[in-house]
């Protein structure tokens, strides 16, 4: 397993780097290098801590100072004022910081509106509040600052700086190993899906709230532990030293520079920034630190928003060559600076090579599409199995005729707008229901209610006999409801295959990644996207994106599939192809509700038609009877049939 192999690698890296301190004098390594490495390790831990939440899940935080501050003050106050053993204060600091993180997360993640800049503002407020609290509370700081006593440490560790280096190394390696493990497990996939399209992830079965809480807790734990060591490093903790904007600014620049979606990004970013900073200070340009940081951030956002890591992975050898060449030439010429200057020049050359605009990444190979086993001429016949079948357990999901969805007197109001008004409806296993009605009649609202994206204002709803009112969308997905969106919302950072694998991993019958990827191929074949499995969503057209929505939806193994205008914006040939796919999905045993304006399509596909008008149920029955109902013609067909010529 990747995660287990990788963790062994981290143990080796830890031991190798620890040896530098233990045998520093024997190796002739000047203390200066160890202090610099210690600083870099502190920032590696902090940037990695920030990245687990903000990079992986996309919840951008300005509150890193709060976790560092809580960690630093816990160690300073417990050790300096109450004589608690330093080694005990470190885990306590980590736990306090994690508890703070969970409180912030518990407040912010409950509400959907606390996303994006609102979440960033909330996290920005937290260190300010803590700073004010520490300043006025004499038990903590009282505006005086707190001295941190130096703990005893074994003689073999050498001097205090060696000891500090080893502590920072331990926390940094644990942090990076944790980030690595998260990235390569379900946890990391869940966070990536949250970053790309949170509502979709939730609808596919990802328990988004739980994963965000876990992520912020990890951020708090690491941030607090590293903050505890920071207290030891600075020796005298003040409000300004921990709760200011410097720490969040640095971790953001480091992670953005290195790359936010990969565990190695913050490591790379932290090392590069610490080296640049150190050389600026050594050259007497200390005051330029923030100017340089700001400039780097501005350039990066434009030039390489995906960060150095992604570029480095694409062309590692030119970067290594630039590093070796520039460092080597400067060393041979020996006309300027110290060995560290030469090395940093080499690093900057490598960064320039990595960032240099080059050819775009090779686009995914497009295999020719698999032959379509469905005879498009059959459109209009609603029975019969054709072509591929869904993976196991995909026969009738529910006994034929069994009530799968039951809505009773369901209403949903938006202020004064009655989007749905007392609708009662039953869906039975094996049906393919066309849900139609004029614009604004409440079709999407009904889909949102059944999938859990919205809660009804009143009424009851059950799926497969289970009450779903108030149930989180991911739980409703596990009960057996899946949906597509009118505007496709793929996970942009994942391949087409992995978009589908995600749904399998978190769906009704969760599978591990490797099995999910294999099964994803079958789902893609059903919608005829197998030839695009390796493509990114950005490389496929609208029709293919709609089909991807369907593949992802069936991958959760739903009992009921809600297709919300899945044919919108398609040309006639694409519509026919999509209709064939819908027919194939239905033939595999999934009950389908299709919201569609094209009545020709509804007539061809549906076994039953439900008409909504102004939020109320207008008609419900077999297509022929419903379409000839005078009320339906008056309310809907008259206008639309005329307007669309259908
Ligand atoms: N989030 C919301 N806030 C306020 N009003 C809303 C919201 N969502 C829907 N509505 C209103 O509820 C009514 C029903 O909207 P809904 O989108 O369900 O209709 P629809 O039948 O799907 O329409 P269309 O065919 O145009 O997609 C409309 O008047 C719409 O403006």
Automatic annotation (TrEMBL):
Residues 383-396 have a biased composition (Polar residues). The keyword Ribonucleoprotein does not apply. The lineage of its organism: Bacteria, Bacillati, Actinomycetota, Actinomycetes, Jiangellales. Keywords: ATP-binding, Cell membrane, Membrane, Nucleotide-binding, Transmembrane, Transmembrane helix, Transport. The chain crosses the membrane at residues 31-53, 60-80, 86-111, 118-136, 163-182, 214-236, 288-305, 317-336, 342-358. GO terms for cellular component: plasma membrane. Residues 405-639 form the ABC transporter domain. Residues 362-398 are annotated as: Disordered. Residues 364-376 have a biased composition (Basic and acidic residues). One of its GO terms (molecular function) is branched-chain amino acid transmembrane transporter activity. Its main location: membrane. This is ATP-binding cassette domain-containing protein. InterPro entries: AAA+_ATPase, ABC_AA/LPS_Transport, ABC_transp_permease, ABC_transporter-like_ATP-bd, BCA_ABC_TP_C, LivM-like, P-loop_NTPase. It is found in: Cell membrane. It is a multi-pass membrane protein.
């Amino acid at each position: 397993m990747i995660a287990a192999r990788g963790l062994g690698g981290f143990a080796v890296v830890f031991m190798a780097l620890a040896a530098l301190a233990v045998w520093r004098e024997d190796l002739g390594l000047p203390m200066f290098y160890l202090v610099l490495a210690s600083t870099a390790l502190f920032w590696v831990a902090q940037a990695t801590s920030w990245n687990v939440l903000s990079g992986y899940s996309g919840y951008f935080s300005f509150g890193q100072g709060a976790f560092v501050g809580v960690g630093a003050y816990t160690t300073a106050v417990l050790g300096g004022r109450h004589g608690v053993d330093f080694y005990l204060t470190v885990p306590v600091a980590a736990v306090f910081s994690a508890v703070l993180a969970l409180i912030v997360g518990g407040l912010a993640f409950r509400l959907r509106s606390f996303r994006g800049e609102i979440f960033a503002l909330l996290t920005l407020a937290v260190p300010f509040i803590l700073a004010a609290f520490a300043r006025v509370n004499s038990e903590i700081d009282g505006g005086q600052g707190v001295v941190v006593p130096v703990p005893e440490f074994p003689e073999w560790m050498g001097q205090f700086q060696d000891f500090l280096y080893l502590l920072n190394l331990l926390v940094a390696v644990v942090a990076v190993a944790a980030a690595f493990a998260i990235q390569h497990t379900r946890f990391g996939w869940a966070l990536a899906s949250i970053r790309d399209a949170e509502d979709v992830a939730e609808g596919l079965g990802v328990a988004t709230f739980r994963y965000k809480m876990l992520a912020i807790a990890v951020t708090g734990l690491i941030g607090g532990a590293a903050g505890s060591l920071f207290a030891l490093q600075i020796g005298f903790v003040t409000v300004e030293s921990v709760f200011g904007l410097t720490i969040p600014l640095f971790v953001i620049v480091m992670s953005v520079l290195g790359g936010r979606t990969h565990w190695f990004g913050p490591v790379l970013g932290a090392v590069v920034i610490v080296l640049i900073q150190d050389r600026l200070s050594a050259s007497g340009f200390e005051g330029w630190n923030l100017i340089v940081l700001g400039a780097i951030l501005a350039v990066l956002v434009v030039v390489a928003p995906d960060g150095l890591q992604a570029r480095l992975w694409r062309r590692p050898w030119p970067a290594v060559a630039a590093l070796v060449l520039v460092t080597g030439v400067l060393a041979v010429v020996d006309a300027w600076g110290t060995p560290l200057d030469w090395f940093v020049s080499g690093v900057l050359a490598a960064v320039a090579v990595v960032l240099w605009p080059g050819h775009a990444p090779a686009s995914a190979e497009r295999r020719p599409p698999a032959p379509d086993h469905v005879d498009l001429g059959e459109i209009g016949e609603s029975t019969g199995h054709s072509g591929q079948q869904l993976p196991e357990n995909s026969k009738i999901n529910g006994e034929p005729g069994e009530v799968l969805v039951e809505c009773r007197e369901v209403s949903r109001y938006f202020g004064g707008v009655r989007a749905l008004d007392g609708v009662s409806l039953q869906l039975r296993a094996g049906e393919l229901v066309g849900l139609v009605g004029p614009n604004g009649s409440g079709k999407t609202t009904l889909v949102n209610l059944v999938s859990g994206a919205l809660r009804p204002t009143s009424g009851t709803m059950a799926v497969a006999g289970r009450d779903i009112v108030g149930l989180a969308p991911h739980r409703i997905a596990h009960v057996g409801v899946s949906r597509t969106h009118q505007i496709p919302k793929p996970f942009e950072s994942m391949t087409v295959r992995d978009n589908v694998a995600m749904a399998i991993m978190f769906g009704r019958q969760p599978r591990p990644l490797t099995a999910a990827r294999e099964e994803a191929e079958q789902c893609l074949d059903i919608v005829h996207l197998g030839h695009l499995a390796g493509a990114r969503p950005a490389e496929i057209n609208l029709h293919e994106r709609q089909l991807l929505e369907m593949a992802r939806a069936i991958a959760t193994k739903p009992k009921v599939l809600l297709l919300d205008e899945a044919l919108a914006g398609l040309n006639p040939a694409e519509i026919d192809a999509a209709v064939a796919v819908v027919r194939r999905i239905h033939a595999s045993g999934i009950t389908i509700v299709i919201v569609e304006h094209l009545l020709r399509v509804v007539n061809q596909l549906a076994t039953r038609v439900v008409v909504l008008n102004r939020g109320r149920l207008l008609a419900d029955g077999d297509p022929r009877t419903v379409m000839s109902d005078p009320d339906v013609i008056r309310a809907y067909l008259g206008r639309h049939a005329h307007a669309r010529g259908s």
